[in-house]
């Protein structure tokens, strides 16, 4: 199983040594995933480590040399003056994708930077949904703010947290990206992935999953990723196992609803859990 959403975060101590991290992920049944670099200072300052972009890039590349199956993502602030240099350098050094949280700017303000990432062939992992930061940032991270990515050729991206609390908006945005590809076959080689990372808590998780699978707007089975929002500064295995068990149980229950002939619900493939936790992850990376 793969965890598409693992951070190195500021102000909470050092990263676990790689062998300890791998032991903890193995305890949770996780065999690979995405590890995102330390964020830029514009997201949250860190007085423990350098946040100069080259240092953040080199650290995550070095760390993941000893974590087989876990891919390094570089967290970029595309409003920085040397953003294009950061993109080209990261791609040349072997980064496997980019992380971006638009917490102080609209996505539409940085389409040229996102297009430059798309040209590298690497994916982008965006945050959507309420963000517990120190900015008044919600207007920048609502799902609808990312509709502008329709204008970028060949972009491949994920939106995290199912846009909590704007789940309806998020699902409709996904359906629109599906329609855009279908309406102009061959012209719009873009792909939006759905990141189930909480976000949406246990109280409303089944409601969210039912809306996602049963709304009928689009069939998301091939585009869903599973993530934990865990950290390499102490990966909490029990939390991961708890959410994995919950999501698998809920998705199994929802699939059973679709097997009732008179339900009229869209079908869900039998191997949906394998897709969410493995197959789709490989597609996200273009493998």
Name a few traits of the molecule.
alpha/beta; 287 residues; globular; single chain
Report on the structure:
By secondary structure, the chain is of the alpha/beta class. It has helices spanning 18-27, 53-64, 83-93, 111-120, 138-141, 167-183, 202-214, 237-258, 272-284, and strands at 2-7, 32-36, 70-75, 97-100, 124-127, 156-160, 191-195, 224-225, 230-231. Strands 8-7-6-5-4-3-2-1-9 form a 9-stranded parallel beta sheet. Helix 3 (83-93) packs parallel to helix 4 (111-120) and helix 7 crosses helix 8 (237-258). The protein is globular, with a radius of gyration of 18 Å. The model has no long low-confidence stretch (mean pLDDT 95).
Can you write the helix and strand succession as a string?
Answer: EHEHEHEHEHEHEHEEHH
Distance N to C terminus:
16 Å
**What structural class results from the helix and strand content?**
alpha/beta
How many beta-strand segments? Answer: 9
Helix content: 25-40%
Radius of gyration based on Cα positions: 18 Å
Itemize the secondary structure elements and their pairings:
Blueprint: E1 2-7, H1 18-27, E2 32-36, H2 53-64, E3 70-75, H3 83-93, E4 97-100, H4 111-120, E5 124-127, H5 138-141, E6 156-160, H6 167-183, E7 191-195, H7 202-214, E8 224-225, E9 230-231, H8 237-258, H9 272-284
Parallel strand pairs: 1-2, 1-9, 2-3, 3-4, 4-5, 5-6, 6-7, 7-8
Helix pairs in contact: 3-4, 7-8
């Amino acid at each position: 199983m793969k965890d598409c959403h693992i951070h190195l975060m500021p102000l909470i101590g050092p990263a676990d040594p790689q062998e300890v991290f791998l032991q903890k992920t193995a305890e949770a049944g996780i065999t690979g995933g995405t590890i995102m670099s330390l964020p830029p200072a514009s997201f949250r300052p860190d007085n423990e480590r350098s946040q100069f972009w080259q240092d953040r890039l080199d650290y995550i590349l070095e760390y993941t040399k000893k974590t087989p199956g876990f891919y390094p993502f570089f967290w970029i602030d595309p409003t920085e003056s040397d953003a294009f240099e950061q993109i080209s350098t990261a791609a040349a050094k072997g980064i496997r994708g980019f992380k971006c949280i638009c917490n102080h700017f609209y996505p539409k303000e940085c389409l040229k930077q996102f297009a430059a990432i798309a040209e590298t062939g690497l994916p982008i992992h965006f945050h959507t949904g309420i963000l517990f930061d120190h900015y008044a940032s919600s207007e920048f991270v609502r799902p609808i703010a990312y509709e502008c990515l329709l204008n970028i050729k060949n972009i491949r991206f994920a939106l995290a947290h199912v846009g909590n609390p704007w789940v309806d908006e998020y699902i409709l945005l996904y359906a629109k990206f599906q329609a855009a590809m279908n309406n102009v076959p061959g012209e719009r080689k873009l792909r939006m992935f759905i990141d189930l990372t909480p976000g949406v808590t246990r109280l409303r998780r089944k409601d969210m999953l039912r809306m996602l699978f049963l709304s009928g707007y689009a069939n998301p089975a091939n585009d869903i990723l599973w993530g934990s929002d865990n950290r390499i500064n102490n990966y909490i295995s029990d939390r991961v196992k708890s959410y994995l068990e919950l999501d698998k149980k809920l998705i199994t229950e929802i699939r059973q609803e679709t097997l009732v002939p008179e339900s009229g619900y869209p079908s869900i493939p039998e191997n949906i859990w394998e897709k969410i936790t493995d197959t789709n992850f490989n597609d996200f990376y273009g493998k």
